[in-house]
Batch of 2 targets.
Target 1
Amino acid sequence: MTVDMGQQYVDFFSYFRTTLLHDPSGFFYSFGKALGGDMLGTWSYYLMSPFNLLLLLFPLSKLPSVVAIITILKYAFAGLTSAILFIKTRPQINGWITVGFATTYSLIGWMVANQLNILWVDGVILLPLIFLGLNQLLKGQSTKLYIISLAAVLMINYYIGWMIAIFVGAYTVIFTLCKAYETTQSYLKVFLKWLGASLVSGVLAAWILIPTFKALASSKMGVQQLIFAFKFEYNPLNMIAKFVNGAFDFTQLPKGTPNIFVGSAVLILFLYSFFSPTINRRRKIANGLLTAFLVLSMSFQPLDVIWHGMAAPVWYPYRFSFVFSFLLIVIAFEALADILANGVVWWGFASSLGLMVLGFIYILIILKKLTFLTPLKLVITVIFLLITAGLLFAWQRYPQKRFFPLLLCVVMAAEMGTNFVTSLNGLSYLPNANYTEFSKLIRQASTKANKMDPNFHRIAETFNRTRNDPFTGNFNGGSVFSSTLETSTTQFFNNMGNPSDVYYAVYANGTTFTDSLLSMKYYFTARKVTGANETRKSLNYLVPLTSRPDLNNYPVKAQTDLINIHENPNALPLGFMTRAQYMFPINNMADPISYQTEIASQLDPTVKNIFTPIPITHVKYDNAYLW
């Protein structure tokens, strides 16, 4: 578990289990989302993968292990669906070659860099099926596979579905204009048929897309300004460095170039396809135009923003780059089929290797700027390139030898596996106990509090693991970290003096007044323990969030081994009567004290001030430099 997997997703997976096993209403709304909020947007972005059903088969304590199993299964299914595509489009190709290309697709650089973002991987799994259905449609055949698979990706993850829709649209428009595919119908009729099929897919997914759009309109989409800067985000040639084995480290997560590693065989064959005289010229032009469009999209800021749903990504840049890798693999597979059918053109093969040498020279020129590359990674890349080129050369010289497909498959798998290992060696992961032990502790406390008081109440903490603790602990809390957080919530938290931003809100700076107003009836605090084992657990898993000395005024109502459960005797219910006829808007937002005071005054006009300033009488400096 690392980055967002440890900070967001694992808590949402816990919420997934709770909703389906105990509280189905959580599909629509949850009071665990800060002070409460719509959950359809959360489900459509984080939780709609059918693989998540495996979470129901295991206890919460095994959740990190189940997530690992789901991740492995998603890699496997990406290979399976791509193999189906290759078999259906080129059934004459040797099975080992199909396995090699399917393995390459399942381990592309994007999959390695985003192995912690498993909620996006379903799109990678469905893309080959969507592409296969699209090819059937363009040939004048059935539209069923295209409609069903495209609707599925829009329902499972609308965000990745949007990116795939752009890719499919670009492919269809370019290949139709270039007349780069054979069809039994007119190109105009085929194009209109594609539009109709795409519309049907959207209608099938509308039951979740429309509520999701509404949820997004009240969250980040409503506050983020759409800024187009007509500039290149970096030199597009620098993208070449990402074809090096292991060209990834932690610095590439927040800000880097696209992760597009596809291995030596794909690169050689992709470049060769443009030199082969036996590949249809119109198809080469269409492939070139689509490749150029994707390269431009991965470097030109306005296009990059459009691909990301009209919002610049926070961390994980160029999230759509998997479609580029997919295109390279498809073109390379077609090129290999052409070689096997018509023989290799040696000058074209040599030209492909020559371009790769030029690219390698460019990498050496800018090597000092590429902190994610090392000499060892370059050596590994050259070794695999030479082995792959030698195998392809020998296979064409001795085509009767049947072991070459198997050898090529082994080399492709070894190269992609090496990239997987060398890339992830640079990342650090939290131990599973960081989640499993904490979830056990927080569930014990929340279960005791909820049994003690079955009525509506909220619970706050002076410690936390993540901002999504309420989802793991199964209680109504006051914090959340989500890409679908309502703007009204973050603004309210900010006005009340609590940390908040577009994606998160944290009830860390509560006061006696806000505790009562927001129904924070119980507070979890870490107990003072003396035993060595208890002290270790407390220090490791109950990480301090805030300090509230005034909680001493809240009596300890119950305890677990490590957690005190304080009860706030002044907590108000969810609904209550006030002396004023109306409440809000609050006009005084100059500072949290004024904001809270005005709320109190609106609730009871006799209240004039709920805070008393304390004059500073003595200042003591510790380890401070004054000038």
Target 2
Amino acid sequence: MENPSTPAAPSGPAIMGLLLHAVANLPREPSTDVLLTQAFLQADAEALRSQEFSSGLAACLARLRYPGDEETRAQDAAQWVVLFADPVGGPLLSDPGLTPEQRLANLAFFLLRPELPLDLLAAYGGNLTSAAAHEAQLALQALLPEQVAPIARFPVALVARLPELSAMTQPVDAQALSVLVPHVLRPDQGARFLQSLADEVFGAVLEDSPVSASQRAFAEMAAEGLRALASRLEADTDPRQVAQILVLGGLQHQAFFQNLAPFTEDALAQREQSPGAVSAVDGVARQLSATGVGLIGMALGGPIGMASAGRIFRSVTRAVDGLMAGGRLPLGALAGEVLGIPGLGVAPRALGEVVAALTQLYAVQLSGLGDEAATLLEDLMPLLLRGEVEGLGAAWAALLDNPERVEALRSADAEARAEVLRVLFVGGGMGAFSWDAVTPELMAHSQTLFGHALPAETPPADAAVLLASSAARALAVLANDELLDTLRAGQLSPAEALVEARELGASLFEGGTEPADPALTAAMLGALAPPVSIDDTVEADESP
């Protein structure tokens, strides 16, 4: 007879949980990734309800996301435990009706978001695609009007709704719009306009529908953002601020209506499943997130910001797909294998921070153009100042194909030449134009501009890849202020600076994941960052 005082043997999930806790304290290896993936796939609802198993799995995921921050890691582990126990979230990860691939896709959805959207699960009945739409809209609403760039454009579809804008040269950006305030366009007019947009958002979902509850939750949140902006206009009279608020409101309105149709179609499709069936996230969620990221880019950096946002989103999703190939979890995304940023996923707000940094880098290059450099770029300046991307590659190619301009660049002061090249390289690295568009011209003048050239027999397609990848590594140094100052002070050579950079940040730029040509990279960096005296550096730092 069994002794009642004898403790019960631990269950299978409890034993696996102890193993996972041990794995959480080990260095990450391919074998630990496999173990974590298999432990998740073998877990059922009962296992996820096991305190030992759920806390062990959470500890592993949090350790991957925050390996060096114990406090943040503990907070992350806690939200994973809440997700596993959630009556809506738990089944998304363990329901027996889901295939292993669907379960992995659902877990990846959460893995790729530093902040798990726990509060959206019940609101949208576990529909992760709907949650993605809400998340994208909310990320756009989280932007402050002060962050809106002067070159951010007011949506073309809304121009006719404000007659004051119709007579202006199109497209209208925030800077142009500010000229109308307050004499042509008063702040209170702008407030009423935003209120009308909020009413339109909510009015779009008033008809009865099988998914009315989800539609109205989405619309209420979007309308709330527009009304918050309208209330700011009631108190704000600064022309620039008024223009920024109106542009941001227009972009929020555009995001909602651009995502409403796919949001509704997906919700209806999910509803047609058998009662009680648990859904799996698919490509529609990415489409909705991409819309939000693109419009965040427009707000932060105008057309070039939008182009950069699109490139970043495509790069991230390609990297994630590669990590998930063969039925794996994208654990490398947590460990920094996506664009070199630990924990970076596809959440619009997190990607928006990357886009903000890149658009700021480009803005710094433009604002740093001196008179000589601006003269060298005379024909391009209107495009550059508008943040234009359409025709930009052709314009750069035309400049580099002009013998007089190339000779002027060659004979220019090294710093003026560097200022021009920095605008060219940062624009190409951000995706404002294709490197293919300028490859023939750069190949023809590399020796003149950089002091080094690829072999003349290099095939054009290979040359474009090498130019992009080499430029990306040079840009990674350019974006590192401390390393750049050390290089320009002559304390490091370009080759030494590249070794010091260890390619960190290169994958943020176009071509940064491809092999580079070391000699070309060093030559490019030398041209982008010519030596300056310590006095010049101090003077530049102290200038207003």
